[in-house]
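Appendix B, Record 12. Input sequence as logged:
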Amino acid sequence: MPRTPEQHEAMRAATRERVRSAAVRLFARQGFAAVNMRRIAEEAGISTGSIYRHFTTKEELFEDLVTEAATGMGEVVALFRGPGDPVESLRAFTEEFLSDLAGTGDFVEFFQLMHQAFTQGNSPEGGAPAVAALVSRNSELLGATVELVERGQSRGALRPGPADELASCYFALLDGLVTMRSALGERCVLPSTSTVMGLLLKEGNDG
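Logged structural output:
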């Protein structure tokens, strides 16, 4: 029985996602320059000819991944600048981050790959437009976090101190956890959401 258009599209989407996941793993572990489309196709379990039905070059594939990261950051910026309670917004993001970090997907490799993109975007020669957009969105996220911390402080919920320093320490903690998870794998003991939130909560306030 021939496949329906819906089945065909679902299979195409699944294959495209396998290609993206394979690229994340290879780019993160071996570096962008060392990977070619044939190697990505092998990692994804498809033919070299098939991969070009989804992406014409590895540069296009890389930019697709970078654009996804920028979109995700934009969603966090919207959350942090939204009308919600500052503590609950931070808690929601922290919980989702730790859940993704504890999962079995490609979150760690994807995070490391985006660090490579940041390095490229902040280099003297710059990077692709998608990378420049990612760097800009990252700055926007940091600014939104500082604003969120200040709102939480004004409500007496978050600890006093320079909001930009607290925001930097918060993200440094998350970055460090990714590094530990990459190095130790399942042996890495990840903190709970409440432990991470303890960095920001005012003493005596359980949020």
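The chain has a mean pLDDT of 90.
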